[in-house]
Amino acid sequence: MVEPLLRVRDLTKIYSGKGHRIVACEDVSFDVYPGEVLGIVGESGSGKSTVLQCLFQDVVPTSGAAYLTSFEGGERNMFEADRRERRELRTHRMSMVYQNPRQGLNLMVTAGGNVAERLLAADWRRVSDIRAKASDYLVRTEVPIERMDDFPAFFSGGMQQRVQIAKALANNPELVLLDELTTGLDVSVQAGVLDLVRDIQSKYGVTAIIVSHDLGVIRLLADRTLVMKDGHVVESGLTDQILEDPQHPYTQLLVNCVTN
Amino acid sequence: MVSATGVRALIDERGAEFEGYTFGFLDDMAKREIRRTILKAVAIPGHQVPFGSREMPIARGWGTGGLQITLACVGADDTIKVIDQGDDASVNAVNLRRLIAKTTGARETLTTGEATLIQTRHRIPEERMTAAQMLILQVPIPEPLRHVERSVAAARAMHAEADYARMWLALYEDVVRNGEVTAGAGYPVMVNGRFVMAPSPIPRWDIPKLNQAETLFLFGAGREKRIYAVPPFTNVQPLEFDDYPFEIEAFPNMSCRRCGATDSYLVTSPQADGSTLSVCSDTSYCDDVLAGRKVENQW
Q1: Residue B73 is a catalytic residue
Q2: Which end of chain A has fewer CB atoms surrounding its CB within 10 Å, N or C?
Q3: Would you list the domain boundaries of chain B?
Q4: What confidence score (pLDDT) does residue A185 get?
Q5: Residue A192 pLDDT level (bands cut at 50, 70, 90)
Q6: CB nearest B241 (choices: A84, A109, A127)
Q7: Predicted pLDDT of residue B11
């Protein structure tokens, strides 16, 4: 019996202010097993990105728990981590690829430097080693190595996204979170980036959670899928099963839209 | 602290130069606050402690932080020396020294060995300082993360979490672009293995002097309202990569034109005839060598 790498239980995020209360996600529970890709699909506003932001601790959840096997033996809720532990989680255990590369990259730092930042955070102190490792990751993500010392500000959107993926892979995180990674790209570049992620996944067996509104992305990458609507998980199961035999009316609608 | 009768006695004894002023110019509450801040700074080496920087009779940015520390620490029996980039004779150094002496009755000196308390801008003396002495450095920018993080709150959080990846990244970028870490004055250092600290704009030459020194180093930033310290016998290491080690300035085949020293930090100025003139930056050291005094305690 394989133990899950990540267990999420009753994750809830409610934004409340004067006279309004917005439920971004509520009672979301799921497991992620080592080496698998979990897809989360849903329309915008369904709370799928909120789930990722909570896991990467960009956003503080209202309630709920998440247990990562490598964090205190999976015994302690990682939302209770103090600031220092949280940073350690973000630099050593998890990484995030944002929809907008500007959020995940420092555009005023070279492509190699962006990848190096995670290595430096892990106390790498030899420039030649750092450069060798960073170029290794950039090669994996098909960023031309001669652009290593250029600024991502001058890169195309697709290449920025590839640098971001290289950065996310640096330091071998246990869990990679991918948030709408192809949404801002045009169709031909999308295909390239998706192929890349699939290749990397099959070669290096990365565990990932991928959030997308695009069933095509989910079909290509995800082993298992959660379908979210209005902040709730309405259906979950193997990706093939969900796409071929959707049970929930919303999933049926979603699958229909694509196949027709 | 000198009691009221003590001040009276001092005025009687040494003339009425500071008649009408409090002892040490600052009021007692200010001195007390600064001393407490210093105690905290010493307790947490390299950590910047905020304090209520007072208005001084010199402009902010001219050494008000150092001056406030000096005035809070100086006693009537102290001998003070003020250095401005190694030089005791600059207008700023002379005026600061005069202000300190006039308001406290402390003796003035130009000689490193004689001073009990030295306030300095941008240099640490060449002559080894002792446990009986104290060095007060004037600091323009106390935050070493200023260049890598614009938000003061975020920089403080980075210090709190010992998260210096961004600082290292800046050094990495420097190496990638320039082939070396180019930081000249104010090379960032790690204090006691915990806090990255701005050592004030001292040259690299002076950085090793901070490590495991007998002397207490106090850093005062008046404009930025921060005090921090390196207590005696504290580890102070420059941030360096294994394959790009920290190096101090080298002066190959150069010597001081005035005293002939080859083992001191030299400053070079262009001359009217197109040549250059190199002399010791530390005038006290230069005078000692010139007078044939042996300065055995060089760092």
Answers
A1: no
A2: N
A3: 2-143+189-238
A4: 82
A5: confident
A6: A127
A7: 65
pLDDT at B21: 80
The number of CA neighbours under 13 Å toward the Cβ of A9 is: 12
Residues near B35 by beta carbon (within 8 Å), at least 6 away in sequence: B72, B73
pLDDT along chain B (299 residues), means of 10: 58 64 90 97 98 93 95 94 94 93 90 96 94 96 94 94 93 93 91 97 96 97 97 97 94 93 92 92 94 79
Residues contacting B279, CB < 8 A, separation 6+: B256, B257, B258, B259, B266, B267, B286
- Is B286 one of the annotated active-site residues of the chain? yes
Interface A-B, measured as beta-carbon pairs within 8 A, has a size of 46
User: How confident is the model at residue A49, as a pLDDT?
Assistant: 93
A177 has pLDDT over 80:
yes
Sign of the CA dihedral B142, A118, A191, A253?
negative
What residues contact A32, with CB distance under 8 A and at least 6 apart?
A4, A5, A6, A8, A38, A175, A207, A209
B25 DSSP β-pair partners: none
Q: What is the CATH number of domain B2-143+189-238?
A: 3.40.50.11310
Of B162, B166, B172, the CB nearest to A130: B172
One-character DSSP codes across A59-75:
S--SEEEEEETTSGGGT
Place of tokens 């030649």: A128
Hey, is A247 helix, strand or coil?
coil
Contacts of A138 in chain B (CB under 8 A): none
Chain B residues whose C-beta is within 8 A of a chain A C-beta are 157, 160-163, 165-166, 168-169, 172-173, 175-177, 241-244
Per DSSP, what are the bridge partners of residue A227? A41, A235
pLDDT digits (tens, 9 = 90+) for A206-252: 899 999 998 989 999 999 999 999 999 999 999 999 999 999 999 99
Type of residue at B25? F
The fraction of chain A above a pLDDT of 90, given in percent, is 72
Q: ∠B85-B91-B92 over CA atoms, to 5°? A: 60
Closest approach of chain A CAs to the CA of B9, in angstroms?
Answer: 56
The whole-number pLDDT of residue A254 equals 87
- The residues, ordered by sequence, that sit 6+ positions from A49 with a Cβ below 8 Å of its Cβ are A179, A180, A211
CB B169 within 8 Å of CB B239: no
How does the average pLDDT of chain B come out, rounded? 92
